[in-house]
Amino acid sequence: MPVTQFNLADHQRAERKTLLTVAAWNETVEGATTEVRELLGRRTEDSSIEYNADIATSTDILGINYTDINKTQPQQDFDPYLILGGSKLGAKLNDIRRRNALSEMSQFTIYIITAFCGTDGAYEAEKHINCTITYNSMGGDANVNFPISVYLSNDSVTGTVDKLGDDFEFTQDA
Amino acid sequence: MDKNQAIIDYLITCPKIQDNPLYFNFIHGNEDDKQIITTGNEKTIDRPYVDGSVLKRFTFTIIDFKSVAYRAVVKDGVHVDENVEDILQVQDIIDWIEEQNEIRNFPNFGEDCIVESIATTANNPNLNGVDSNVSPALAKYSISIQVNYIDVSKVLWK
Hints:
Chain A is mainly β. Chain A is built from one helix and eleven strands. The mean pLDDT of chain B is 89.
């Protein structure tokens, strides 16, 4: 599969908003299960996916370095993550917190959408299943902050999404 | 949505403003006239978020014109409270703004702007000076007001 080029003009920088992290989970209402989604990053000024590569480097007697990457453990923190009216994920995590239902924190699907790759109607994306979202603290000063960390499972497939909105359709690459 | 018009529409719902002439930027002041003065905001206070929204601030000032009494507040055992009463009327506007913030009644900046808060920058009016060229002389009390809002017009996620 050819490498997709960026949909940017030469030397144009990709705006931060074109890298999107979307949390999704299933909710069952009256027997019908639907995937609920929410874009992460509202009121967060700075957030990056940290890949946390586990690297081992050895050097032979000629002085040549050999670097092995054993694994990556991608993680993304959102701090602040404010308690906001209308936040579906905030309400979901607060419900988990109240019940101390820890296992439910590892049942999220995370979509990483790179809107700087692809075209309108087919933006490149990754879908990670069984991801973990942890709440790290709760409190703050003027507003209630509930910072979270997202741990990507790497159990993922690549594909595209047809739009940038909660009702997007994810199509897995052939 | 023009934010200046939104502010005018909002302020005329204030009981202490709606029954008096309200001017925008330019005025030949008379007793109890109110004046809105626009204030430029430094873009450096904008706070962009990773989803493309931006926290911004809209600042303006209300000038309230009140006649001046050049008399001692207390003299020979007689209290003359005109100046004190005048500033209390200006204070009522500050209190009204605080109440509106509490009940989240904000100016309507349009669907691309989510107003977060409205607040005065001080707890009491500021005396900006006295215009002695008119009769009676007029004191100019000012109230600076900040509206914090989230501009979501550039958000990709719809």
